[in-house]
Amino acid sequence: MKEWGKFTEITKAKGVWLTDSKGNKMIDGVASMWCNVWGHSNPQLVKSIQNQSKKLQHSSMFNLTNEPAEKLANTLVKISPGMHRVFYSDNGSSAMEISIKLALQYWKNIGNKKKTKIATLENGYHGDTFGAMSVGYVPEFFGKFKKQLFSTVQFPVPNKYRTPKKYTAANYEQYCLDKIEKRFAKNDDIAAFVMESGAQVAGGVIIYPKGFQKKISQLCKKFNILLVLDEIATGFGRLGSMFQYQEQKSNPDIVAYGKMLTGGYLTMAATLANKKIYDSFLGEFNEWKHLFHGHTYTGNPLAAAVSFENLQMYKKNNLIKKIQGKSKIFEKFYDEILDIDIVGDVRHKGMLMGIELVKDKKRKIPISPKKSINKIFFEVGKENGIYLRTLGNIVMLVPPLAISETELELLLKRTIKTITTAKSKVI
Ligand SMILES: Cc1ncc(COP(=O)(O)O)c(C=O)c1O
Predict the structure, then answer these.
(1) Which one, 175, 195, 251, 368, has least CB within 10 Å?
(2) Which CATH architecture has domain 46-316?
């Protein structure tokens, strides 16, 4: 906190451009924490909030419902194959807490007392609340709370750039899968496998090898373990398809959505469950099978209205198809970025790029300056007219999905300039 002094104050934003109180303009290179879809101040989205705000701004979802929440739930179920019902919350971490509770209680509801453990992948990230921290343990973020977190059964994740010595990328992936299978076979105490869908984002843009998620899904089915997929950062087109679970040919029992669900305008998240899970919560009142969970702003009508409009716009504008074309612009700059002497690896999928900085390219030693890389990149980025946020030694490019091709090229060129300029400050 001390190193930051005053923060840059953003006073307005239009499209992909953020303007600060001094009139400086920056391209929003992180889609306002990975949630912005259409750019800022989009008239259609703003109008949907205004219109809804004239009718109903908030109403409890305890014993009640509201039209926007109903409409949105129907749409979400329609576009999410295999899913049956929606449970709303107001941020991704809560959506994950709900996912974990649904998965654990499912086994209790059907009378299975043995399945009480959660399996996870190392280096995963699912949010900052205690349950979410427990299933997504990243040592740098959560180390101080380790004693308070519940234990999980963790498995390694293949990272092509950092495959341990004596393995190839392919046989290390197999090693990870074998480890999972052996543990699943040993004891049937695992209730659910929780993982990010398609890629680990906060963990450094670790894109899973093709087939990895599918194989985990198959192992879950084989050993009667629920699969919980976190689509909060990767869903709604970030990795180039609407939902990664479909692209990865995996069959989750529970999925969590957040971030881009509202287009980045209001706060809302959703946990979807298949029929098997939903039905297990149906019982007589005195059977106590219902889920004791709810938040004040669950199913907020304003957030639901803007989410519904956002999803209509995806369809009308054929956004996913457009992203697939635009994604190729990242590839155009790939070699140029990799050529920078402090860049060790560049990982890209859809509208997401992670640029791993190293001080020794050959030996892949991450840069570890005394000052924070994040602050240096923020400041140099700002001078170059872009808003960047790094995670550890990874420069993250996560622009609003509807960024124009020209703006995306500008963002990439300015990122290259920023890395080159910041180089002497971080080494
Ligand atoms: C994969 C994933 N899950 C969950 C979360 C938590 O979402 P929120 O910040 O809305 O609580 C994040 C946030 O970055 C995330 O990347």
Answers:
(1) 368
(2) 3-Layer(aba) Sandwich (3.40)
